[in-house]
Design brief:
Largest sheet: 7 strands, mixed
Number of domains: 2
Strand order of the largest sheet: 1-2-3-7-6-5-4
Bound molecules: biotin
Number of helices: 4
Low-confidence stretches: none
Shape: globular
Strand content: 25-35%
Length: 250
C-alpha cells in the first residue's frame, strides 16, 4: 500500500484497523498533528452516520483525516462540505463526464447512486473550544452494498467505468483536492464552499423526501443556509433541517 500525499499531510498506513476514524481520534487525543491521515485497507468496525455500520472489506477506500482548524465548534459542520467538494472533484477526475452529485449532508452520488460517504466527528476541550475534528471518508472503489442492504441505492467507481488507478492514487487525489478546498475555506470562509456544493446538490429546487429521526417529511429543497442546514419549503413554511437522510428522488 503506497500513497504520496501533498506535503502538509502525515500518512499512517495500516493493513487493518477497527475504524480509521476511531484510530484517528485515538491518535488526535495523543497529540497527532493537523492533517494526519489514517488509511486502512480494511476495517473490522467501520462506522457510518447515525450509528450505522459501514461494510469495510478490502477493495474500497477507508481513510480519516485529523483536523485542528482555528475556528469554534459551531463551524465544524462546514468541513463536511469541504470534504464533499473534495470528494466530488476527485471522483469526477476518475469518471470524466459522469453525473457526480452531492447529497445532503455528506454523501456523494454517481448517476443517482451512492458512491461515497463522509463521517464528521468533533471533539471539544473542557472550555468548549474545538479540540480537533476527524473527517472519515469511505469511497466505494471495487465493490458496493446490494440495494436491499442499504437505505439508498449504491454503486462503486469501477462499476461506473473509472480510469484505472490504485486506491493509494485515489487517496492522493482526495488529499490534493481536500487541501485545495481547505485553502478556499481558509481564505474565503464557508461562502464559496457552500456555492460549489450547491452547484452539485442532488435534488436542488425539486421535491424531495427527508427521513428525520421521528418522521418523514416532503417539500421543495430550497438550498442550504450559512450553517449547512437544509432548507425545505413545506405547506407550513420553510423548515431548517439539521440532521436527516434525503431519500431517492423518484
Ligand atoms: C456514511 O455515509 O454514513 C458515512 C460513512 C463513512 C465511512 C468512513 S470509512 C473511513 C472512516 N472510518 C469509519 O469507521 N467510517 C469512515
Amino acid at each position: 500500500m503506497d500513497a504520496v500525499l501533498p506535503q502538509s499531510f502525515h500518512l499512517v498506513s495500516l493493513e487493518t484497523i477497527d475504524s480509521t476514524s476511531s484510530e484517528a481520534r485515538r491518535r488526535a487525543q495523543s497529540g497527532a498533528a493537523d492533517s494526519t491521515v489514517v488509511w486502512a485497507l480494511e476495517q473490522s468496525a467501520g462506522r457510518g452516520r447515525m450509528g450505522r455500520s459501514w461494510v469495510s472489506e478490502p477493495g474500497n477506500l477507508y481513510a480519516s483525516i485529523v483536523l485542528r482548524p482555528s475556528c469554534g465548534p459551531e463551524r465544524a459542520t462546514e468541513f463536511a462540505f469541504v470534504a464533499a467538494n473534495a470528494l466530488a472533484e476527485a471522483i469526477a477526475t476518475v469518471l470524466p463526464g459522469a453525473d457526480v452529485t452531492c447529497k445532503w449532508p455528506n454523501d456523494l452520488l454517481v448517476g443517482g447512486r451512492k458512491v461515497a460517504g463522509i463521517l464528521l466527528e468533533a471533539e471539544t476541550g473542557p472550555s468548549g473550544s474545538l479540540d480537533f475534528l476527524v473527517v472519515g471518508i469511505g469511497i466505494n472503489v471495487g465493490h458496493h452494498p446490494d440495494d436491499d442492504a442499504v437505505r439508498f441505492p449504491a454503486t462503486d467507481i469501477n462499476a461506473e467505468g473509472a480510469t484505472e488507478m490504485t486506491i493509494g492514487e485515489l487517496l492522493e487525489s482526495v488529499c490534493f483536492q481536500f487541501h485545495r478546498q481547505r485553502k478556499l475555506w481558509e481564505h474565503a470562509g464557508f461562502r464559496l464552499i457552500r456555492e460549489a456544493w450547491l452547484e452539485r446538490a442532488y435534488g436542488l429546487g425539486g421535491m424531495i423526501a427527508l427521513r428525520l429521526p421521528e418522521r418523514t417529511v416532503g417539500g421543495t429543497f430550497q438550498g442550504i443556509d450559512e450553517q449547512g442546514a437544509l432548507l425545505l419549503k413545506t405547506d407550513g413554511g420553510v423548515e431548517r433541517i439539521l440532521a436527516g437522510d434525503v431519500l431517492p428522488v423518484a
